[in-house]
Amino acid sequence: MGTYSTKVISQAAKEDSSILNLSIGEPEFGPPQHLLSEIDTKDLTLTNFLESVNRYEQSRGSAALRNAISEWYMRRYGIAVDPDKEIIITHGGVGAITLAILSATRSGDTVAIGDPSYMLYKRTIAALGRNPAPFLRLPANEEYREVLNSMDDFSNTFGAAKAIVINSPENPTGYVVSKTEWNLLTEMAEKNDAWIIHDEVYDTMAFSREHFPARSVDTLGERTILVNSFSKKFGTPGLRIGWMVANERLIKIASKAHDYLYLGVNILYERIAARLISDPSSEEWFTNMNRYLSERTSRATRLLNREQGFTWERSPMGAMFLFPNVSNLYETIPADYKIKDFSISESVAKYLVHKHKIAAVPGSVYGTSSDANIRLVLCSPSNVYDKAITRLANINNVPVGANIT
């Protein structure tokens, strides 16, 4: 990974308050305003605090939260999930991803991931002693259909791949897997005796194509692991509560691994999480959040066009990110930013943060296919986001040496 990684850019933005930070997915919204009073008076009490700090949580997490998650899947998707046997509460979505890979595969196994994909997947797979196997995913209306149709045989491409990790809605592209694609992926999984690990942490943020949990495909239930989290959908990344859904045998394995790695999650935060996900009126809040993300996406894709150096290979269907191609913008930046060992995206990211005070993530961190893309977050505070998009829309009208404030 090049010099201008996500954390380096984010750190630069934190140290310089004049930088407009579109590099990190910390939502300006949430938790839902209508629940704050109840969280304050019913969850954050001294009694609850003392009760939560005087013991360890059981490895699978509280029954109350697991029941609430089970009811969430039935209420929102019509999917039956056994709260006693098929759910484990984790330290955020990252903890769930780690447990999913540990439970479903063994050291030395191959795990397939898309290129592009969230950079954490490749690192986690490698750190756990598995072999990450990226496969190229080109922009299309149904990208996984194109991938599977282009392969003579999945097993010939990936050898004995024991799992494939799919993020939908996706960070960084905003892609959402269609129901047709899930059916095709089911056939692949059955044929190759492989697990599908569906990271659906942005499930409530599908605004131009409906989201389907992989488990909603009838024949895929036993081969599916769902990974989810409270961080994005409720705007609570600091809560660090997530979950994993899988069959009973895999949850037993995950529970043992969870004991070895983490012991248990924060009990007080579980209480808050249960309140958040149990509230049916939050559906209206999700609808409004989707509208907010969709409107921001539409405005950005309209203003950031080819004339400014941006092209849109993919129109975001969900999640909270923009992922434009900046090859044309690269051609216009000063030569001293076109560093020999930098990708197009790293060069442009450096140029934007230094000369235009805008922090973006170079697409190269998500895979080699995204060397010419940058990632911008949709969920920054309005005063930051609006100013940044306006600045980018006028980027060719601002003299390179101008003082940006």
Task: Explain this structure.
The chain has 405 residues and is of the alpha/beta class. The protein has 2 domains: 135 residues, Aspartate Aminotransferase, domain 1, CATH 3.90.1150; 225 residues, Type I PLP-dependent aspartate aminotransferase-like (Major domain) (Aspartate Aminotransferase, domain 2, 3-Layer(aba) Sandwich), CATH 3.40.640. The chain contains 15 helices and 12 strands. It has a 7-stranded mixed beta sheet with strand order 2-8-7-6-5-3-4, sandwiched between helices. Strands 9-12-11 form a 3-stranded antiparallel beta sheet. A two-stranded parallel sheet has the order 1-10. Strand 5, helix 9 and strand 6 form a beta-alpha-beta unit. Helix 7 packs parallel to helix 9. It is globular and about 60 Å long.
